[in-house]
Amino acid sequence: MRAAVHTAAHEPMRIEQLADPAPRAGEVAIDVRSCGACHSDLHVLKGELPFPTPSVLGHEVAGVVAEIGPGVRDLAVGDRVVTSFIMPCGQCGQCSRGMEEICERFFRFNRGQGKLYDDDTRLHRTDGEPVWMYSQGGLAERCVTPVTSVYRVPDNLDLADVASMGCSTMTAYGALRHAADVKVGDTVAVVAAGGVGSGLIQLAAVFGASTIIAVDISDDKLDGARKLGATHVVNSAEVDASAVIRELTGGRGVDVAFEARGAVPTFNIARDSVVEGGQVVVVGIAARGTTGEFDLATIARRKLQIKGSYGAKPRRDMPVLLDLAARGHLRPQDAISRHYSFDQVQEAYDALNRAEIQGRAIIDIT
């Protein structure tokens, strides 16, 4: 099969021929149709998140089941599926207590070493050299993943439209539902209107937020945010964004501010935009060593809550999101602004690095 192989930080990915991967017990092989271009991949490509090489990135996968491993039930060859970037083992302490979004084995084996849970990769060059996997390694014609991360796609949804649901939309849902527990009538700010920010805006509207303020430095992204449901937009390159957010909320600030970029300036805006007792939810993945600041006395006096959120609970939440999309309440396709062919995969990430992508870009593999 063809795969986009990452070999070193700041070097372009190369399309190579790898051996076709095969599933083992409890796993599924998927012929990839589409894969979203996520900023987490970009962090790896730039060396900001350590990960072994050579490796195949890509974790927003939609495709067709090609083969099932021993013990897999409820899926069949030919099923149209989408994956979650979190691949819960279902057995570790975190999974056992309902915290599968921080599955211990996922972080130990996959994020730490590029392997699946038998301590081995499924990807190899044709000479047998191992190639490591970032989640399922979806920037390839075929990938293998645990069945716990695979979900059937309703017949009325296009695969390319739902590819990004397994990361950007699921990450947004986890932040809104589990970290912040946004309720009807709440006021929210989304600081950075990129891929995850677009999902936050869409889902905040689904959740019934009364005010949704999108903040970004790009007028194009802010125009897109309005189309996705933002009630107000603020260009933080032109104004003091936190001050404007307070003005828009009658001087009080928002109930929840989501930081969706993983950067100090966006964290500062979110931190300074919330009401007394409000929540600052950090969703964006920052480069290692990035440090945000806050005044401990202010945090205590204003009873601020600063939370982290790393995705949703796949086995509980992915079926909910797919049902919302099937019924038309959620339209992930509205956040997709560009499609690239597989041969243009590096161009997609270069555009992402230049902050040119509104919402999500999709790489059409086959």
UniProtKB/TrEMBL annotation:
Superkingdom of this protein's organism: Bacteria
Protein name, entry field: Zinc-binding dehydrogenase
Domain Enoyl reductase (ER): 8-363
Cofactor or coenzyme needed: Zn(2+)
Keyword annotations of the record: Metal-binding, Oxidoreductase, Zinc
Family membership: Belongs to the zinc-containing alcohol dehydrogenase family.
InterPro entries according to UniProt: ADH-like_C (IPR013149), ADH-like_N (IPR013154), ADH_Zn_CS (IPR002328), ER (IPR020843), GroES-like_sf (IPR011032), NAD(P)-bd_dom_sf (IPR036291)
